[in-house]
Amino acid sequence: MDIEFLARFQFGMTTVFHFFFVPMSIGMAFAVAVMETMYVVKKEQIYKDMAKFWGNIFLIGFAVGVVTGIIQEFQFGMNWSEYSRFMGDIFGAPLAVEALLAFFMESTFIGLWMFGWDKFNEKLHLLFIWLVSIGTALSALWILAANSFMQNPVAYSINEATGRAELTSFVGLLKNHQLWVEYPHVLFGAIVTGGFVIAGSSAWKMLKNKDMEFFKKSMNIGLILGLVGSILTIGAGHQQMIAVANDQPMKFAAMEGIYEDTTSPAPWNIIASIDTKEKETKWEISVPYLLTLLGGEDKYIGMDQANKNLHDEYDAKFGSDVDYYLPVKTLFWGFRFMAGFGTLMALMAIVGLFLLHKNKIQNMKWLLWLFVAGISFPFISNTFGWLVTELGRSPWTVYGLFTIADSVSPGVSATSLLISNIVYFLLFSVLGYVMFVFCKRAVKKGPYYVDPSEAKKDGIDPFAKGVL
Against a cut of 0.70, is the pTM above it? Predict the structure, then answer.
């Protein structure tokens, strides 16, 4: 089997699985901080109960996210040593700051928050969870600073003696305009993720008619976060697409299924039949003028012209045999799945909030089941968004500087890659199953569960009504 394919598959599998938990951790930490803030402000016990209960779900996701993040870092030494050699000076700086500042910040204040409910005053304890939330957001910032360099290299020079990229300005790295369109998009998407995990889990408990007041209030907060996050994500995504059109026109053309230059003003393809062998769009259903209205440009180049431009620019460095055409169907439909699920979640949040305030949603089982299914929607949207972002950078790991083919470890074998792929897949399957079981068990117990052994020790009747 092809070594490059196996290495890419392993990295993709590892990153997708890890990225399930990153937005969830960021979003859940923010949601718990909001709930505890409401407790401190309103002095209502139910908000403290909510912060504790949903905090348990956050902690489970955070723990699995840490494990998968460590596994992902192994990839750079195992399969991508040439990439690490080329990018180490640049990639290492933000990763070191992420580990030394953001991750230590999260870890320290998570411990204080977990065990400090009865040891600190309310406002100081609230500060802990906000510092955890800020820490999770800062972690994303430093990781995306490295990723944005791969999308749009800035503030670097190439050492002619070593052939390595070297950072010339850390501030310049942070000024990368790609970072400031990527970061809000990821951050707001994480808020949506946390909101819909809470809303969907609450809907599941409401179907069982358990702790209705608690879960209706939880669902209300989850849907508010989901709605605000969805609107902000759509806005941030729009700005990112404008940046992509300027920085990576081939990626943009593939996302829109455009082989030939558009007419002026440009239409937007809702759906299309794309023939990758003949390199043409057979038919499409389009909305006239919409792409111009969304992107602000009268005309966009297609993949054929983008391919010609890339060959003109890079043939002298990388040779004429490099294929600049992208997996068009994956990018085209991936973008639509991402945007479609994002829009669907915004609509679901609006409808859910309206029916909650009308006190009708608990009687609409089909809609509650839709919200239960909706737990998966932000994860689907996040995954497709990541695939579009990363696959659209081909054939480079660092756009215009370093190719994927040159990034693979020279000593790795197909056999070792195949074995490690199987091991990682089994490991992720086990971790995913454990995560699901623990989260389901925590939600099933509810916020007021008392362990029978603890109840007996405290003199509580474990079989009393409302205890179990």
Answer: yes
Structure tokens at 186: 């990821």
Q: Are residues 171 and 307 in the same domain?
A: no
Tell the residue number behind the tokens 């990576």, with chain if given.
Answer: 248
Tell me the CB-side half-sphere exposure of residue 54, using CA atoms within 13 A: 35
198, 317: one domain: no
Could you check whether the bond before residue 94 is cis, i.e. omega within 30 degrees of 0?
A: no
pLDDT above 50: residue 52: yes
What DSSP element (H or E) covers 375?
none
Cβ(236)–Cβ(188) below 8 Å: yes
- Decide if pLDDT at 316 tops 90: yes
SS3 content of the chain, % helix, strand, coil (to 5): 75, 5, 20
**Contacts of residue 381, Cβ cutoff 8 Å, sequence gap at least 6:** 189, 192, 337, 338, 341, 342, 345
CA 414, CA 421: separation in Å to the nearest integer?
A: 10
The 10s digit of each residue's pLDDT in 409-426 is: 998 899 999 999 999 999
Mark whether 59 and 180 lie in a shared domain: yes
Instruction: Write the single-letter amino acid at 251.
Output: K
Tell me the CA distances in angstroms from 450 to 48, 377, 458, 467, one per residue in order.
17, 32, 10, 6
User: What CA–CA distance (Å, rounded) separates 457 from 459?
Assistant: 6
Q: Are residues 255 and 266 in the same domain?
A: yes
CA-closest candidate to residue 176, choices 208, 142, 152, 140: 152
The torsion of the CA quartet 76, 78, 82, 84, rounded to 10 degrees, works out to 20
Q: Using the CB atoms, write b or e for 37-63: b if 16+ within 10 Å.
A: ebbeeeeeebbbbbbbbbbbbbbbbbb
Which of 11, 14, 7, 105 lies closest to 67 in space, CA to CA? 14
What stretch of H or E contains 285?
strand 280-287
Return the half-sphere exposure (C-beta side, CA atoms, 13 A cut-off) of residue 385.
Answer: 29
Where residue 156 falls (left for φ over 0; alpha for ψ -120 to 50; beta otherwise) is beta
Confidence of residue 461 (pLDDT cuts 50, 70, 90): low
Residue 305 shares a structural domain with residue 414: no
Give residue 116's domain range.
3-247+333-447
pLDDT in tens, 216-251: 999 999 999 999 999 999 999 999 999 999 999 999
Report helix angle 179-207 to 414-445, nearest 10.
Answer: 50
User: Peptide bond preceding 395: is omega within 30 degrees of 0, i.e. cis?
Assistant: yes
Distance separating alpha carbons of residues 111 and 128, to the nearest angstrom: 9
